[in-house]
Structure formats: structure tokens, C-alpha cells
Amino acid sequence: MTETAPIIRFEGVSKHYDSFQVLKGIDFAVARGERVVVCGPSGSGKSTLIRCINGLETIGGGTLTVDGIPVTEKTLPKVRARVGMVFQQFNLFPHLTVLDNLTLGPIRARGMPRARAREAAMRYLERVRIAEQADKFPRQLSGGQQQRVAIARSLCMEPEIMLFDEPTSALDPEMISEVLDVMTGLAQTGMTMVVVTHEMGFARKVADRMVFMDHGEIVETAPPEDFFTAPRSQRCRDFLDKIL
Ligand code: ADP
Ligand code: MG
């Protein structure tokens, strides 16, 4: 792979759920280090699109590559080693402490010695400013804290790409900014990020490029300054009128 080749590339990707076509010939590439924010109405296919990137959904047609690797059943371990994902519901293991949530993957999947895994985990917990909660259980934390733990847990696997699917949608309003701040910090490290969110303040600040989806298609893609001031399509204008 050359440095300039896209790290994620969709070419004519389609997908059906039975007779319903959820992705309609998606052509889309993300450059290494790029931050892309995906928005669009509910049901437009945003979650499906990003879940394909780490193989949580299989594609029906076309090709999808991550770091040059076609995403297939066979390549899943290689793909998932490169891609971290954070969900709306934090999906922490409830019976494990924060620290054990973070070290499980590195110890089990990577065979990392426990002491080294714990040391690395503490560094990531510090990065999301939650190191003092290391020995607590997820239920003892606020939603915003749990989501920051979920981000730290993903980072422990040292991904090259981070996917976020509406990471602040399940949070009380006062906790949204603490999670967005952590994501902004991550963006500043040069991480490749694909973020589904309706937090347009974050998008304006962090996105290199906006993607607008509707009915299984990418309708529009533009840098935020153009996207927000001069959306080209009526569908996109209607959407922005509703959420801004
Ligand atoms: P978004 O994230 O933009 O809200 P999704 O990707 O979750 O959209 O879903 C797109 C469409 O596909 C929706 O109409 C949804 O009902 C449908 N869909 C999603 N997952 C499934 C599934 N497992 N089976 C059938 N239909 C699904
Ligand atoms: Mg969704």
C-alpha cells in the first residue's frame, strides 16, 4: 500500500435486506488521516454503511477494501485489527471493571502480558481523562464516562481507523461535550475517523469532509464550509433545515 492510497474504498457497493435495498451502489473513499462525518435522515443507511467497514454487515455487490484488503469473511481478523468501533450504546462488559474492559482485548486477542496491557490501558484512560475510575464497574459511571471508556477500549487495540455510530445520541445533553472533546482530541492525533453524528458543531470543527446520505445513496459530499453554507441538493437543504 502506498501512503496516498485510500485507507477505505467502496466501489459500487450494494446491499439488500431481503427485497429492500439499503445501500445503492456506494462509491466512496477515505484517505489516511481523513475525518469524515456522515449524516442523513434516520433509515438512510448510515449505520449499515459504517458497519460494512469492519465486517459487521456483509456487502451484496461491489468491492470494499480496508488498507487494501478486501473485506470478506476470510479477512475479518485482519480488517478488525485495523478498525475500532464505538456505538451509540457503549457495549462495555458489565461484569468487568473499567480496566479489565480495556485489557481484555489486548490480553486475549493479542497475547499481551497482563502488566503491559494494564500499563497501556491506564495511558488510554488518562487520555480520555478517566483514569481515576479504572477500578469501577460500568454501571457506576455516567453515560458520558462509559462512552469515554468505550473509546479508550477501542484505542487499546491500536486501530488505524476509528468508526463512531452516533456516539452521543444516548447521552444526556450535559455529557455530550465531554465525549465530543475526546473525539476532537483523537482527531488531532491524525487518526482516520468516520463518524455518524448529527452534532454539526463538532462536524464543522473536526470534519475534513461531510457525507450526506439519503435512501441508501451518498447524495452529496463536500468540505464542511461548502456543505453547510451551500448544499447543492434539495434533499440535503431540507435535512439541514430540520436539524440546524
Ligand atoms: P441509519 O443508520 O441511517 O438510520 P440503517 O443503516 O440503520 O440507517 O438502516 C437503513 C435501513 O435498513 C432502515 O430502513 C432499516 O429499517 C433497514 N435495516 C437495518 N438493519 C436491518 C436488518 N437487519 N434487517 C432488515 N432491515 C434492516
Ligand atoms: Mg443508525
Automatic annotation (TrEMBL):
ABC transporter domain residues: 8-240
SUPFAM superfamilies: P-loop containing nucleoside triphosphate hydrolases
Pfam families (UniProt xref): ABC_tran
Gene3D superfamilies: P-loop containing nucleotide triphosphate hydrolases (3.40.50.300)
Main location: membrane
GO cellular component: plasma membrane
Membrane topology: Peripheral membrane protein
Highest taxon above the source species: Bacteria
Keyword Cell membrane: yes
Compartments, as annotated in UniProt: Cell membrane
GO molecular function term, any single one: ATP hydrolysis activity
Keywords annotated in UniProt: Amino-acid transport, ATP-binding, Cell membrane, Membrane, Nucleotide-binding, Transport
Family indicated by similarity: Belongs to the ABC transporter superfamily.
Annotated protein name in UniProt: ABC transporter ATP-binding protein
Species for this entry: Seohaeicola zhoushanensis
